Amino acid sequence: MKNNDIILEVENLKKYFPIKKGLLKKVVGNVKAVDGVSFSVKRGETIGIVGESGCGKSTTGACLLKLTTPTAGSVKYYKADGEVIDILTADDATLNELRRDIQMIFQDPSSSLNPRMSVRDIVAEPLRVQKIGTKAERTERVRQLLRRVGLSDYQMNRYPHEFSGGQKQRIGIARALALNPKIIVCDEPVSALDVSVQAQVLNLLSDLQKELGLTYLFIAHNLGVVEHISDRVIVMYLGKIVEIAKSDDLYQKPLHPYTEALLGSIPEGDPRSKKKRVRLEGSVPDPSNPPKGCNLAPRCPYAYDICRNEEPPLRKMDEDSEHYVACHFAKELRLYGYDDLIKKMEDDDKVDDNKKDEDNK
Amino acid sequence: MVQVKIKEGMNKESSNGVEYSFWRDKLSSLAKHKMATIAAVIILALYLMVILAGFLAPYHPNQAFKNHFFHPPTKIHIKDANGLTWPYVYATKATGWAKYQEDKSKKYPIKLLYQDSEYRFLKLIPTTIHLVGVDEPAHLFLMGTDNYGRDIFTRILFGGRVSMFLGFAGILITSIFGLLIGGVAGYYGGWIDSLLMRIVEVILSIPSFYLLLALAAVLPIKLSSAFRFFLIILILSFIGWAGMARVIRGMVMSIKDQDYVVAAKSLGASDLRIIWKHILPTATTYVIVRATLAIPGYILMESGLSFIGLGIQQPDASWGNMLSSAQSITKITSFPWLLIPGLMIFIAILSFNLLGDGVRDALDPKNE
């Protein structure tokens, strides 16, 4: 991998939220929302981050824009001209400039648009904040952006509550595009939308990527959504990365038991489907008091003693595969990919049917 | 990925063709609230009355008719032997202590745009024209006179200036301080928040009426009424801002975590811009409701202070100190018109409360 391919490099990112107790607000512990996350993003790719609620994926996204100040680590942004900026140590002026290059699309379109501002003001706000253009120029740009995301420019003077969820998200996308960013952090951009609208918004996002050469950091809790749009996928569990792989590899050859469980939880379109889910027992451990060894050990069906005592490092599987996994038994385990799961399910159905036939006899 | 071809239903231009505006929308839903509309009209009328007091009042507020103390409201006659006629009054003569009889020998017609004592119209243009008046020796006491023989109607108009504007100015200062301090505490949090909220708690724990009494009592008697008025506003606002700041702080804390504020931050917007454009507009609806509901409190406070003689001092009029001449039961039974200032306080407060209710309903997003 050539170095100028990389646009964003995250190293050992940590975000701890202190738990304060008592009158003097003594710190009695930390919620480790993000605990030592490292990955890099290539120019023009879409990298998905998945994991269940509370695994730290949104916090990671917020740290990249310095919306919340990380406890430790570094986020390096490689400008097209070769300049490298560490987002976390940059001064205010640099950071402000950087905000033109990195933008965000939010999860809930109805709360991410100020109900008191017209669409024109909302979409023009980035330009006003960054002091770009005259009023007329900004209005023209707003028209352009609205048309680009599939809205009509005559809707410019309307207020957010007059739009549907999908339209509101389009407005949010128009706002994110206003400054011609290089990277867009999409924080669950479709999870609040109707399924039929999800596809439209995802299509729009991938069209925009092709057209404008954007890099996406796509956060989602649903592997199904991420599969379509991502080149690579990062799987997070309890503040840590458990697996990074190319989208196809992850779906067909998962190497971490948690990824397998996630794949097993993708809902089926067929209502008669009797897909056997790989179930994880118990619930996510308390992030302020994570287990000693592997975070997944208490719930993992394959766990041995070493899993409960030693934390597995995130390691590369082989030299050229770009497949990283944090599991002691990554090489030994034979896990089911998505297609395998479907096949297994069909086989199980057959077994069930055979049993029924026998019972009937 | 399969391209989905369905287009989202585009909104057509709204049917009435009128562009949506948040405040216009709220105003029209307030207009549907009948009681609030009536209250708003009354309040407007009251403000108009006190602003135009010099013109509407037949006399100067301090003009004492020594031979006509405790005079009952002058009877206005619209009928004579020939049937209906232009309204006229009779002159009255004292027949005993605070007893008056009409002298029916001569009619004094009520004259419009009557020339009497000089005043400044809207505090600017000196003029002597009053809306109505009658020639001497007849008098036009629409609501009777007080113990010095001063026209109560005139004094109600002038006294209303104090009551109506004190509430307004008080809530204005309270709102500014409440927004500023509550906003800073809520937005920045941490030790700033702790410090400001402890100050708020200290102020909230002071028994406010006693503080008012103490402060009003130490003010020198010689102070001009205007200055005293100003001080009362300051004292009332000093007590009032704390409660407001506390609520604003809570609102700001919840608004600042909204995604649209985070979005503005991610665009690089300054704190000032975020507070001004995103947080305060959401808090204004609360402030407006709170203000309309709090004005009556200020009016009452001032009346209370003036009633016990610590507010606006004689000879200047305020509704509170006018009421204080109606303290004994014999006076109330013999001269019931002395209670009219109380009625005015009642009307003003009731109207503000009804309007506040209506505004609250109109601004409540759940009420649509």
Automatic annotation (TrEMBL), chain A:
Domain ABC transporter: from-to ranges: 8-263
Gene Ontology molecular function: ATP binding; ATP hydrolysis activity
PROSITE patterns per UniProt: ABC_TRANSPORTER_1, ABC_TRANSPORTER_2
Keyword Lipoprotein: no
Chain intervals for the UniProt region annotation (Disordered): 262-292
Pfam families: ABC_tran, oligo_HPY
Keyword terms, alphabetized: ATP-binding, Nucleotide-binding, Transport
SMART domains: AAA
InterPro entries in the record: AAA+_ATPase, ABC_transp_ATP-bind, ABC_transporter-like_ATP-bd, ABC_transporter-like_CS, Oligopep_ABC_C, P-loop_NTPase
One BP term from GO: peptide transport
Domain of life: Bacteria
Family that this chain belongs to: Belongs to the ABC transporter superfamily.
Name of the featured protein: Peptide/nickel transport system ATP-binding protein
Record lineage: Bacteria, Bacillati, Bacillota, Clostridia, Halanaerobiales
Automatic annotation (TrEMBL), chain B:
InterPro entries: BP-dependent_transpt_permease (IPR050366), MetI-like (IPR000515), MetI-like_sf (IPR035906), OppC_N (IPR025966)
Entry keyword annotation includes Chloroplast: no
Keywords annotated in UniProt: Cell membrane, Membrane, Transmembrane, Transmembrane helix, Transport
Transmembrane domains' residue ranges: 36-57, 164-187, 199-221, 227-248, 335-355
One protein family per Pfam: BPD_transp_1
UniProt topology in membrane: Multi-pass membrane protein
Species assigned in the record: Orenia metallireducens
Principal location listed in the UniProt entry: membrane
Gene Ontology biological-process annotations: transmembrane transport
Protein family membership: Belongs to the binding-protein-dependent transport system permease family.
Family annotation (PANTHER family): D,D-DIPEPTIDE TRANSPORT SYSTEM PERMEASE PROTEIN DDPC-RELATED (PTHR43386:SF1), OLIGOPEPTIDE TRANSPORT SYSTEM PERMEASE PROTEIN APPC (PTHR43386)
Domain ABC transmembrane type-1: 160-356
Identification of the protein by name: Peptide/nickel transport system permease protein
GO CC aspect terms: plasma membrane
Location(s) in or outside the cell: Cell membrane
